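Protocol step 4 of 6.
Sequence for non-specific serine/threonine protein kinase (Salvia divinorum) entered exactly as in the expression construct, tag removed. Do not edit the line below.
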Amino acid sequence: MPTLSVIDLSNNSLTGGIPDSFGNSPALESMNVSYNKLEGVVPSNGMLRTISPDDLAGNPGLCGVVLPPCPHAIAGRERGIRAKHIIGGWMIGISTFLLIVMAGVGARSLYLKWREGVCFEEEKSSGEWPWRLMAFQRLGFNSHDILSCINERNVIGMGAAGTVYRAEIPRLSTTVAVKKLWRSTEMGGDMVGEVNLLSRLRHRNIVRLVGFLHNDSDAMIICEFVKNGNLGEALHGKQALLVDWVSRYNVAPGVAQGLAYLHHDCHPPLIHRDVKSSNILLDEHLEARVADFGLAKMVLTKNETVSMVAGSYGYIAPEYGYTLKVDEKSDVYSYGVVLMELLTGKRPLEAEFGESVDIVEWMRGKQRLGLEEALDPSVGNTNHVKEEMMLVLRIALVCTAKLPKDRPTMRDVSSMLAEAKPRRKTSIFTTTSPHL
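Step 5 output, structure tokens:
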């Protein structure tokens, strides 16, 4: 038992309760006991306090910790008698199980030593308990595989929430993105709960969370790896991926649909809080994936409030200056800035705009002289394309209205974009190097 890192006892018709001894195992990272006949209170010690509800599914009699509260307490005497029977039954089953897996564990350990030349040494932590890996889907890797990739060579990005690393697991031919959060010294149950909530999000335009690696002082979000980098790089970097208006337009509905899902289809609704071009990733088909949703709230320390993290300069809604609060309409404003980036090819802040002038104010100034002058000439090179771009520009202007009540919802934005869709297909594109 002390050497096991993963136990899968699902679909075995096991009865009784879960012993406390499982939570106390120093090496155990993942345990799946779903679809048995277990009952009673889930222990709240060690890794069991952060176990995924999916690993406990199919056991109607279980309750507490990550599951709904227990409807009533079990009498002390009955609990004591039952515990003896439960532990006895579990120990017989586990002993048999251990005999089978010990040989495999030993062989795997020898293989890792042979493959890497040395045994991996886990990072020492000042915390009271070791690294724990919460898996939100079946993973072939463990915490050692991830921690071995957290070094300067693998850094692929850095933002307000943390540093992003590329983690390649060669034996699985798998690559994931790992974001090590900046502020995690105050990490506790709130962050674990936030991650559990975000892990349940499923939308084609939302980057999927696959795991959460943490101890009592550090936290890392593990996400799917998205090949073609972020929208900011595609627009303003050396490698031009969005070479025509159709390919730029195609990014806009994906982002809108992803944000509409967060605002209207999640319960409770989720606010992104940091919509910007560098938080919009592009997959192999240049379809948009919204990333870093909810991270602004998670990196807060216990003495801060949500309003103290409100996005990135150039994307922040004007009302934040006097309300210090963010809501869905704050995301809508930031999305409007992203649309202006797509239309003009310019960053939210450029020297040519003038001192303390952002792209929204600059665009409003163009309304008096002719908005067409603001469009990116590299993609708006015909009157027909300019007309299509002007339809989207009107959407960008209403999204960035000064008053929140004058801005549409993201669901309305999706409908408006559908009406402004170009009637042509995008040009064939090629990509030369993968990014996050």
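Step 6, annotate. The chain has three domains: 6-116, 132-224, 231-419.
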